[in-house]
Amino acid sequence: MKAAVQMDMHGCPNRCRHCYLGHHMNPDIPVDEFIRVAEQFREYKKNGRTFFSELIFCSWYREPDFPDNYRELWELENRLSTGNVPHFELTSIWRLARDPYYAPWLKELGVKTVQVTMFGTEKNTDFFTGRKGAYADILKVFDILLANGVAPRIQVFPFTTTLDDINRLVAVLHDIRLEERVKDLGREFTCFFNTLTPMGEGFKLMQIVLRKDDIRKLPDYLIEKTLKHYKKATVQEFMKTEAELLTELLNDGNPLNDNPEITAFFIDGDYNVYPNCGEITGWWCLGNLKRDGVASVVENFFNRNTPGLKMNFETPVSYFARKYGNPDSDVLWVKSDLVHKWIRQEGMAGTSQE
Ligand code: SF4
Predict the structure, then answer these.
(1) What is the pLDDT of residues 72-121, one digit of tens each?
(2) Which residues contact ligand 1 via a Cβ below 6 A?
(3) Of the candidates 24, 88, 29, 11, which has an alpha carbon nearest to the alpha carbon of residue 56?
(4) What domains appear along the chain, each with residue ranges and CATH number?
């Protein structure tokens, strides 16, 4: 059995309004504690046999490389894990703007692309990132990355209230010649709009989720880049209105079965553990590592012993569609996000809680 164990040792400098992981205090977990957590998972046995054949340990599940000892933590993650821990395109934009040694280190690790999240120009990017100066950091980070031979990749979150500003953002990207500068590195420039996951803080943005008519107000440039990124011919291929999706979902007798490629256990600063197919909230919680121990947490996951897991792996999608679906809604969704919204509504109502 392969799994990842990700501990929120230091939190995140941002408080993004779309954050599916939610807003929580930034913890300060000592390195020794992280090592003890790793030992518990590595030593977990079932029927006398080591349960996990492969384990990847990460010192974060919110912002990677946020604490000053990020190199030490990276080395520790690799020592504790059964294989090499890859460094993905997720990095700390906050650190990139402040730490001159960080971009060269990322390059040394072989990072070729860094993902940057934007919500428009300064006012909206600062507002939706939940941090003043976030936009200024990003503009600075473009230069830093390019100077180090690393390509920025931009994901944009548009909302019904920010469409004009998304057009302004695209004009800024043209003004600073970002695409040409990435091409000068011999790389393709990737830029796409992403869809809201209505979990955690994202659930609070329901009133401003994109609607069908909003798509034509987005810049053609962003639409073209987005379709290329998702390898789709039209927006309708990956997003439909709730009304359109309902026709299919009312007849869907299967559960959602959101099952990420690698099962990850997210451990928060209070040692509560959550599966990565869900969110950091009560009805998904597998237990507390200190209070309940690793055996109970792992068994709760595999026995689907939380309301969230039951809703994901057992309850037919048609149940949620009948109860929460709106046949008049022109809000655009990816199917799994819409079902997760309904699962959250059910979780909040407590009707699936044991
Ligand atoms: S979305 Fe990412 S960067 Fe933003 S608050 Fe959540 S964890 Fe932090």
Answers:
(1) 999 999 999 998 887 878 999 999 999 999 999 999 999 999 999 999 99
(2) 12, 14-16, 19, 21, 62-63
(3) 88
(4) 2-232+259-304 (3.20.20.70)
